Amino acid sequence: MKKDSIHEVALKKLFNIDEELNFFDIGACEGLSSARYSSMFPKASVYAFEPVPKNFKLVVENQKKNSLKKFYPFQLGLSSKKGKATFYVSSGRPENKNKPADNSSDFGNKSSSLYKPGKTKEVHPWLKFKKTITIETETLDSFCINESLATIDFIHMDVQGAELMVLQGAQNMLPKIKSIWLEVERIALYEKQALKKDIEVFLDKNGFICIINKVNYIAGDQFWVRETYFNSLHKDVKKQLITIKKKTHLKSNLSTLFGALKYGVKKIIK
């Protein structure tokens, strides 16, 4: 059995596994995380968003393979506005790599974005962006109205530099979102993308606190919880989450420092 990741540990402290929750997997790729959350929280409704046709097909296949009943896949890209957009599709495989560690079917299908590649190819030279497609986009606000969803308990967001764009399309829903796990970058892996500091300012301004920080000198993940919800938790749960916060923030700071010294991050930034 797969060991819980650090944010999954936090999720199990935030929510009861028997609750009827609303989980969003935005940038679901092959749907592996969606299936994982459905398994962890069997009464949760999981909404998976993946705009790339080939990946979306794998999402549906994973749904059928795991017999997921409260799993709802949508071939959409979430953004700051509804309409159509150019999407930069990634591909490629590192040398001497046969299978991804997460048992998915590919390496290169995980880096597609609404933004044109920037320093991505410098950090990962094996990545290719050979084509663009036109995708349908929707906002979180509009989607939740259409689906009659009043709250979102958890968002898993992996949208390759478009995180702030997605959040800007959720101005009405933001006060009704309890937690967010997302990827952020310190450097522009994609042209014109929002960076780590931009995401942090936005979420802090909108009433979230960062519980988990796993960002190194280039990129990484953060877990944010609405402060009012955090304050409503039992004191023992809050204490455990604060312990997680201290450990991950310390490791992130050390990783950033030593990584920059070892690999010369300035060569990438300039």
Walk me through this protein's architecture.
The protein starts with 5 loop residues before the first helix and ends with a helix. The protein has a single domain (19-84, 136-269), classed as Vaccinia Virus protein VP39 (Rossmann fold, 3-Layer(aba) Sandwich). The model has no long low-confidence stretch (mean pLDDT 91). It has a 7-stranded mixed sheet, with helices on both faces. The protein has 270 residues and is α/β, with parallel strands linked by helices. α1 runs antiparallel to α9 (235-263). The chain has helices at 6-14, 32-40, 53-65, 120-123, 140-146, 163-168, 196-205, 227-232, 235-263, 265-269; strands spanning 22-26, 45-49, 71-74, 77-78, 83-91, 128-138, 154-157, 179-185, 208-215, 219-226.
CATH arch. level architecture: 3-Layer(aba) Sandwich
Report the uncertain regions: none
Number of strands: 10
What's the alpha carbon Rg, rounded to whole Å? 18 Å
The major pleated sheet works out as:
7 strands, mixed
